[in-house]
Amino acid sequence: MPDPENENTVRASFEQQKKAVITLASDLAVVKMETPEQAVYLLSKAWLTIADECMNCLGGELHYQAMVYHSLRVAGVPLKQLGMNVRQDIRYAQTELFRRFDERKHVDFRGGFETIPDVVLFKPEVNGDWRRRRAQDTLLNMLVAIEIKASERDKSRLREGEIKRDIEKLAAHREEVEHLGAAMVPVMMVLDTAPVTNERMTPQALKACREFAASQRVAFAYLSLRESFFDMPPSVAQIEQCVEVVS
User: Fold this and answer.
1) Residue 2 maps to a domain
2) What long-range pairs does 89-96 form, CB within 8 A, spacing at least 24?
3) Which residues constitute the domain of residue 137?
4) 219-224 and 185-192 as β-strands: parallel, antiparallel, unpaired?
5) Does residue 201 fall inside a structural domain?
6) pLDDT at 123 (0 to 100)
7) Residue 25 has what pLDDT?
8) CA atoms in the 13 A half-sphere facing the CB of 133
9) Do the domain assignments include residue 1?
C-alpha cells in the first residue's frame, strides 16, 4: 500500500518551486532560444508542468521522457530545436572518461564513443535534423542535454552509483562540447515519483548525488511526492538576465 503523504508538505514544496521558476509576463510572449541560458530558462518554465504530469502518471522511463518532451514544447521550445534520444558519435574523445569507454571496445572498433542524451535542446542552426550522421553539427549546436532517471522498479529504487555515473557522463559530454569551442548545460533529472517509500531514493543517496552534481557543474532536477527542486550551475544561475523576450 502507498504510504500516507502530508499534502501540506507537498503543496508547500510546489509553492517554493513556483517562486524559484522564472515566469513570463505574458503567456503569449515568444522566447528566443539561441543560448544555453535561454534554453535553461525554458526548461525552468517547463518544470512545473513536468512535475504535475509526472506526479499524476506512473510508467516506465521512456514514458517520462515523452512527458518531459511534451512539457518543453508546451513551454515554448521550438519543434526543430528539441530532440529525443539523440545519437552522437564523439570521435577522438578528449575526456578521460570517454577515452576509457572507448578503450573497452575491441581494437577494431575504437576511435570514438557514442553518447545518447535522452532529451536535447539545440540552437536554431540544427534545423530539425539531429541524425547520427550529423554528430559534429549536433555537438556544436547543443544548448542543453538532459539525462532522465525514473523510479520504475518493482521493490527496488534508484541507486546513488547509477545517478553519479550519469552525472559523470554529462560532465564529460559538456567538456567534449567545450573542446570544440561551443557551450552547453548538462542536466540530470531524477523523477522519483514511486508512491511507496522503499522504491524511492534514500535521503542519504539523494544528498550525495545532489552534492556530486554541484561539484561537477551539472544541473540537478529532482521530483518526488515529498520534495521538488531544480539546482542550477552557477554559470546559469542568473538566467533571467540573459533571456530576450519579444512580442
Assistant:
1) no
2) 89/113, 89/114, 89/132, 89/135, 90/114, 90/115, 90/135, 90/139, 90/176, 91/135, 93/176, 94/175, 94/176, 94/179, 95/172, 95/175, 95/176, 96/172
3) 7-20+29-246
4) parallel
5) yes
6) 95
7) 32
8) 1
9) no
Residue 245 has pLDDT above 80, yes or no: no
Partners of 91 in beta bridges: 112
In this prediction, residue 107 carries a pLDDT of 67
> How is 198-238 classified by DSSP, letter by letter?
GGS--HHHHHHHHHHHHHTT-EEEEEESS-EEEEPPGGGTT
Task: For 207-243, write each residue's pLDDT tens digit.
Answer: 999 999 999 999 999 999 888 999 987 665 444 444 3
Beta bridge partners of 31: 245
Q: What is the C-alpha to C-alpha distance for residues 44 and 21, in angstroms, rounded to an integer?
A: 6
| Number of domains, the chain | 1
Residue 170 lies in a domain: yes
Res 197: pLDDT: 86
- Terminal Cα distance for the chain, rounded: 50
Per the CB < 8 A criterion, the answer to whether 51 and 58 are in contact is no
